[in-house]
Amino acid sequence: MPELPEVEHAARTLRAWLAGAPIARARAAPTRIFRSGGRALFERRLAGARLERVDRRGKMLLLSFEGGVGLLCHLGMTGKWVRREGSGPVPPHSRARLELAGGAVLHYCDPRLFGRIEVHVGLDLLTLPSVRALGPDPLVDGIDPSALRDRLSRTGRAVKVALMDQAVIAGAGNIYATEALWHARIHPARPASSIRRGDAVRIARGLEASFAAALATPVEEIAYLSEGRGVDNPFLVYDRAGEPCPRCRRTIEKTTIGGRTSAFCPRCQRAP
Ligand SMILES: [Zn+2]
Q: Whole-prediction pTM value?
């Protein structure tokens, strides 16, 4: 599932792809990616639109076009944007497409259809309730450890589950919560309410380190899980149960927390 670094890569790519030419035509298949009326709005309002800017908040892509048309796109579990020349073959699972005046076509591809596309007219996408409900974005707002500790202290959930809550911090999911807690030497099942300021400082540093490493990694590698291709695992502990901890060499174990598999080092990350 795309998390902050993958979505940031998508934002940068879409910014470059849409910078040159306006959209000549927009087409979409009838799928659940669009809520009621969204597909008709997509086809009607994006024709002729010229990009103003691309923002990202957490895992949400926010494309603003001149004339007050906005596109919110959440990639869900398997969504991605793919660029093809107009005459080229249509990529698999293309659900919607933007045909650019220059001839290129941007396809929104999503095999499992958990993604979401919304078209909004006449408002600033950053003011949408779903965007305002997000916690701070680590790249846009930074991570303030005291504020993070305050938000974590309000819940008895496992700290890993709390870190995946987009209202606590926007952009982390299973991968980066796992990586950050390994950096911070905190067991993923520890109650979030037990996190002290020093722990929050280490979690903030851990998130920053994991995001920075991913943003410096070629996108084909960080997308290895969703692509299912034979690319090496670029992560330190995520999906590495049975392998040695990169810090202490103890064998990494896995457990299930909040329904998700969590890898951790039993020596570096002591059970609560
Ligand atoms: Zn270790």
A: 0.94
